[in-house]
Amino acid sequence: MYFFTNPKLIKATYLLISILSVLLINLTYYFFDIRSKNFAPLVPKADAIVVLGAAVWPNEKPSPVLSDRLLRAAELYKMGISSKIICTGGVGKNPPSEAQVSKIFLISQGVAEKDILYEDISTSTKEQAIEVSKICQRENFKSIALVTSFFHEKRAIRIFELANFPAAIFDARCVHTRYQDLNWWCLREAVFLAKLNWWQWLIVGIGSGIFFILRKTYQTLKK
User: Fold this and answer.
1) What is the pLDDT of residues 113-146, one digit of tens each?
2) How far is residue 205's CA from residue 15's CA, in Å, rounded to a whole number?
Protein backbone atom coordinates (compact mmCIF):
# COMPACT_ATOMS: atom_id res chain seq x y z
CA MET A 1 0.00 0.00 0.00
CA TYR A 2 2.96 2.32 0.60
CA PHE A 3 3.57 2.54 -3.14
CA PHE A 4 0.01 3.67 -3.87
CA THR A 5 0.02 6.34 -1.14
CA ASN A 6 3.52 7.79 -1.52
CA PRO A 7 3.20 11.01 -3.59
CA LYS A 8 6.80 10.92 -4.83
CA LEU A 9 6.51 7.34 -6.10
CA ILE A 10 3.19 8.12 -7.78
CA LYS A 11 4.72 11.16 -9.56
CA ALA A 12 7.77 9.16 -10.59
CA THR A 13 5.48 6.48 -12.02
CA TYR A 14 3.49 9.04 -14.01
CA LEU A 15 6.74 10.46 -15.34
CA LEU A 16 8.11 7.06 -16.33
CA ILE A 17 4.86 6.05 -18.06
CA SER A 18 4.87 9.32 -19.97
CA ILE A 19 8.47 8.87 -21.14
CA LEU A 20 7.90 5.25 -22.20
CA SER A 21 4.69 6.21 -24.02
CA VAL A 22 6.45 8.91 -26.03
CA LEU A 23 9.30 6.51 -26.79
CA LEU A 24 6.83 3.90 -28.06
CA ILE A 25 5.13 6.51 -30.25
CA ASN A 26 8.51 7.53 -31.68
CA LEU A 27 9.52 3.93 -32.38
CA THR A 28 6.21 3.28 -34.11
CA TYR A 29 6.57 6.42 -36.23
CA TYR A 30 10.18 5.63 -37.16
CA PHE A 31 9.30 2.06 -38.12
CA PHE A 32 6.43 2.93 -40.46
CA ASP A 33 8.29 5.91 -41.90
CA ILE A 34 11.35 3.78 -42.69
CA ARG A 35 9.28 0.85 -43.99
CA SER A 36 7.47 3.13 -46.44
CA LYS A 37 10.72 4.30 -48.04
CA ASN A 38 11.51 1.15 -50.05
CA PHE A 39 11.54 2.96 -53.39
CA ALA A 40 14.16 4.82 -55.41
CA PRO A 41 13.77 8.60 -55.17
CA LEU A 42 14.70 11.17 -57.78
CA VAL A 43 18.26 12.32 -57.13
CA PRO A 44 19.66 15.74 -58.13
CA LYS A 45 23.10 16.04 -59.67
CA ALA A 46 25.94 15.90 -57.17
CA ASP A 47 29.70 16.18 -57.11
CA ALA A 48 30.05 12.57 -55.98
CA ILE A 49 28.05 9.42 -55.35
CA VAL A 50 28.93 7.87 -51.98
CA VAL A 51 28.29 4.16 -51.41
CA LEU A 52 28.27 2.99 -47.80
CA GLY A 53 29.92 -0.39 -47.35
CA ALA A 54 28.23 -3.61 -46.27
CA ALA A 55 29.31 -7.18 -45.66
CA VAL A 56 31.71 -8.99 -47.95
CA TRP A 57 31.15 -12.72 -48.39
CA PRO A 58 33.88 -15.35 -48.85
CA ASN A 59 35.87 -15.34 -52.08
CA GLU A 60 35.74 -11.54 -52.30
CA LYS A 61 32.05 -11.55 -53.18
CA PRO A 62 29.85 -8.60 -52.20
CA SER A 63 26.86 -9.57 -50.09
CA PRO A 64 23.39 -9.10 -51.65
CA VAL A 65 22.91 -5.91 -49.62
CA LEU A 66 26.21 -4.47 -50.84
CA SER A 67 25.44 -5.58 -54.41
CA ASP A 68 22.14 -3.69 -54.35
CA ARG A 69 23.87 -0.54 -53.13
CA LEU A 70 26.56 -0.81 -55.79
CA LEU A 71 24.05 -1.44 -58.58
CA ARG A 72 22.22 1.69 -57.49
CA ALA A 73 25.47 3.69 -57.52
CA ALA A 74 26.35 2.39 -60.99
CA GLU A 75 22.86 3.28 -62.20
CA LEU A 76 23.17 6.86 -60.91
CA TYR A 77 26.64 7.14 -62.47
CA LYS A 78 25.30 6.07 -65.87
CA MET A 79 22.37 8.49 -65.50
CA GLY A 80 24.88 11.32 -65.17
CA ILE A 81 24.04 12.18 -61.56
CA SER A 82 27.78 12.36 -60.90
CA SER A 83 31.03 11.42 -62.62
CA LYS A 84 32.67 10.29 -59.35
CA ILE A 85 31.87 7.47 -56.95
CA ILE A 86 33.31 7.16 -53.45
CA CYS A 87 33.41 3.63 -52.00
CA THR A 88 33.67 3.11 -48.26
CA GLY A 89 34.34 0.38 -45.73
CA GLY A 90 37.28 -1.43 -44.17
CA VAL A 91 37.93 -5.13 -43.71
CA GLY A 92 35.13 -7.02 -41.99
CA LYS A 93 34.69 -10.73 -41.38
CA ASN A 94 36.00 -11.61 -44.85
CA PRO A 95 38.83 -9.79 -46.62
CA PRO A 96 39.55 -7.71 -48.60
CA SER A 97 37.99 -4.40 -47.58
CA GLU A 98 34.43 -3.52 -48.48
CA ALA A 99 35.72 -0.54 -50.47
CA GLN A 100 38.08 -2.68 -52.56
CA VAL A 101 35.37 -5.23 -53.34
CA SER A 102 33.04 -2.36 -54.20
CA LYS A 103 35.56 -0.87 -56.60
CA ILE A 104 36.01 -4.17 -58.45
CA PHE A 105 32.25 -4.64 -58.69
CA LEU A 106 31.68 -1.13 -60.03
CA ILE A 107 34.34 -1.58 -62.70
CA SER A 108 32.55 -4.77 -63.79
CA GLN A 109 29.40 -2.66 -64.14
CA GLY A 110 31.07 -0.24 -66.54
CA VAL A 111 32.28 2.45 -64.14
CA ALA A 112 35.67 3.86 -65.17
CA GLU A 113 38.40 3.09 -62.64
CA LYS A 114 39.62 6.69 -62.74
CA ASP A 115 36.19 7.82 -61.51
CA ILE A 116 36.31 5.70 -58.34
CA LEU A 117 37.65 7.05 -55.06
CA TYR A 118 37.62 5.11 -51.83
CA GLU A 119 38.50 4.85 -48.17
CA ASP A 120 39.12 1.40 -46.72
CA ILE A 121 39.65 1.94 -43.00
CA SER A 122 36.17 2.73 -41.61
CA THR A 123 34.23 0.19 -39.57
CA SER A 124 31.02 2.14 -38.87
CA THR A 125 28.75 4.73 -40.45
CA LYS A 126 30.20 7.40 -38.17
CA GLU A 127 33.73 6.58 -39.31
CA GLN A 128 32.57 6.54 -42.93
CA ALA A 129 31.19 10.04 -42.48
CA ILE A 130 34.55 11.23 -41.16
CA GLU A 131 36.60 9.57 -43.90
CA VAL A 132 34.28 10.67 -46.72
CA SER A 133 34.40 14.19 -45.28
CA LYS A 134 38.18 14.17 -45.71
CA ILE A 135 37.83 13.09 -49.35
CA CYS A 136 35.21 15.78 -50.05
CA GLN A 137 37.42 18.48 -48.56
CA ARG A 138 40.42 17.25 -50.52
CA GLU A 139 38.49 17.06 -53.81
CA ASN A 140 36.42 20.19 -53.10
CA PHE A 141 33.14 18.30 -53.42
CA LYS A 142 30.18 20.44 -52.36
CA SER A 143 27.44 17.82 -52.61
CA ILE A 144 27.04 14.05 -52.46
CA ALA A 145 24.36 11.52 -53.38
CA LEU A 146 24.39 9.11 -50.44
CA VAL A 147 23.66 5.51 -51.40
CA THR A 148 22.79 3.02 -48.71
CA SER A 149 19.91 0.64 -47.99
CA PHE A 150 16.52 2.33 -47.80
CA PHE A 151 16.14 1.33 -44.14
CA HIS A 152 19.55 2.77 -43.26
CA GLU A 153 19.32 6.03 -45.24
CA LYS A 154 17.58 8.20 -42.64
CA ARG A 155 19.98 7.32 -39.85
CA ALA A 156 23.00 7.53 -42.16
CA ILE A 157 22.11 11.06 -43.23
CA ARG A 158 21.60 12.04 -39.58
CA ILE A 159 25.01 10.60 -38.63
CA PHE A 160 26.69 12.50 -41.48
CA GLU A 161 24.98 15.70 -40.35
CA LEU A 162 26.07 15.20 -36.74
CA ALA A 163 29.63 14.74 -37.99
CA ASN A 164 29.45 18.28 -39.45
CA PHE A 165 29.69 16.92 -42.97
CA PRO A 166 31.02 19.71 -45.23
CA ALA A 167 28.80 19.01 -48.27
CA ALA A 168 25.09 18.89 -49.09
CA ILE A 169 23.66 15.37 -48.72
CA PHE A 170 21.09 14.01 -51.17
CA ASP A 171 19.01 10.90 -50.46
CA ALA A 172 19.98 8.30 -53.09
CA ARG A 173 18.80 5.19 -51.23
CA CYS A 174 18.63 1.80 -52.88
CA VAL A 175 15.70 -0.58 -52.67
CA HIS A 176 15.65 -4.18 -51.42
CA THR A 177 12.91 -6.49 -52.67
CA ARG A 178 14.13 -10.06 -52.20
CA TYR A 179 14.54 -10.32 -48.44
CA GLN A 180 12.06 -11.80 -45.96
CA ASP A 181 13.38 -9.96 -42.91
CA LEU A 182 12.95 -6.33 -43.99
CA ASN A 183 10.56 -5.63 -41.09
CA TRP A 184 13.29 -6.73 -38.67
CA TRP A 185 15.84 -4.39 -40.25
CA CYS A 186 13.35 -1.52 -40.23
CA LEU A 187 12.59 -2.13 -36.55
CA ARG A 188 16.31 -2.31 -35.80
CA GLU A 189 16.87 1.03 -37.52
CA ALA A 190 13.92 2.53 -35.64
CA VAL A 191 15.58 1.58 -32.35
CA PHE A 192 18.92 3.05 -33.48
CA LEU A 193 17.21 6.26 -34.58
CA ALA A 194 15.46 6.57 -31.22
CA LYS A 195 18.82 6.12 -29.53
CA LEU A 196 20.42 8.69 -31.82
CA ASN A 197 17.65 11.23 -31.17
CA TRP A 198 17.17 10.32 -27.49
CA TRP A 199 16.99 13.91 -26.26
CA GLN A 200 13.98 14.71 -28.48
CA TRP A 201 11.58 12.08 -27.17
CA LEU A 202 12.99 12.33 -23.64
CA ILE A 203 12.22 16.07 -23.44
CA VAL A 204 8.71 15.53 -24.81
CA GLY A 205 8.17 12.62 -22.42
CA ILE A 206 9.33 14.57 -19.38
CA GLY A 207 7.32 17.61 -20.42
CA SER A 208 4.18 15.54 -20.92
CA GLY A 209 4.70 13.80 -17.59
CA ILE A 210 5.14 17.08 -15.71
CA PHE A 211 2.03 18.51 -17.38
CA PHE A 212 0.01 15.45 -16.36
CA ILE A 213 1.31 15.62 -12.77
CA LEU A 214 0.51 19.36 -12.48
CA ARG A 215 -2.93 18.76 -13.94
CA LYS A 216 -3.66 15.97 -11.44
CA THR A 217 -2.34 18.14 -8.58
CA TYR A 218 -4.56 21.03 -9.64
CA GLN A 219 -7.61 18.77 -9.86
CA THR A 220 -6.87 17.41 -6.39
CA LEU A 221 -6.52 20.89 -4.89
CA LYS A 222 -9.83 21.98 -6.42
CA LYS A 223 -11.74 19.16 -4.65
Assistant:
1) 999 999 999 999 999 999 999 999 999 999 999 9
2) 8
